[in-house]
Design a protein that fits this description.
It contains six helices and five strands; from the N terminus they run E-H-E-H-H-H-E-H-E-H-E. By secondary structure, it is α/β, with parallel strands linked by helices. It has a single domain, classed as Hypothetical Protein Ychn, Chain: A (3-Layer(aba) Sandwich), CATH 3.40.1260.10. Helix 5 links the parallel strand 3 and strand 4.
């Protein structure tokens, strides 16, 4: 029998609704089970913790085989917004929190939320562009220090 998981560090690299929610659900579930959790937001995953963007994340409709729609249809203007709206209504019906609510909930449980320094620099962001729950802008090396002894999950 293997040892129980004590710590997870989740790398959030996608900026689409379908790329973000798995990481948030996994982090929330880890904390609910008493597992230490850290989230490291990099590249387009920074949108999740960006003050002006985290309420406007959409579903990726182009090239998303899980939607079971032709790529050409997904590229029509407005399809992404409509699909996102439909998904948000379904999630609201199931009482799944919005991204800003999820970030606040996860932070309130003691999880660590960190932005990738290289990505922050690449996109010209500062700490003031990020939600207050972000505990710091850290390097990859610092992320590995925080992840030491635990499982790393890439979403």
């Amino acid at each position: 029998m293997s040892d129980p998981i004590q710590k997870v560090s989740i790398i959030v690299s996608k900026g689409s609704l379908d790329g973000v929610y798995p990481a948030l659900i996994m982090a929330n579930g880890a904390r609910a089970e008493g597992i230490e959790a850290n989230l490291f937001f990099t590249f387009f995953g920074l949108d999740v913790i960006h003050v002006g963007r985290n309420e406007h994340i959409k579903i990726s409709t182009v090239g998303n085989p899980g939607l079971h729609m032709p790529t050409m249809l997904g590229g029509i203007p407005g399809v992404s917004s409509l699909t996102t709206h439909m998904m948000e209504r379904k999630m609201e019906h199931l009482d799944i929190p919005s991204i800003p609510e999820f970030i606040e909930m996860i932070s309130d449980t003691g999880a660590g939320l960190y932005a990738c320094k290289a990505s922050v620099d690449l996109f010209g962001l500062t700490q003031s562009d990020l939600v207050p729950q972000v505990q710091g802008i850290i390097t990859v090396g610092e992320f590995y220090e925080k992840a030491a002894g635990g499982q790393i999950i890439f979403t």
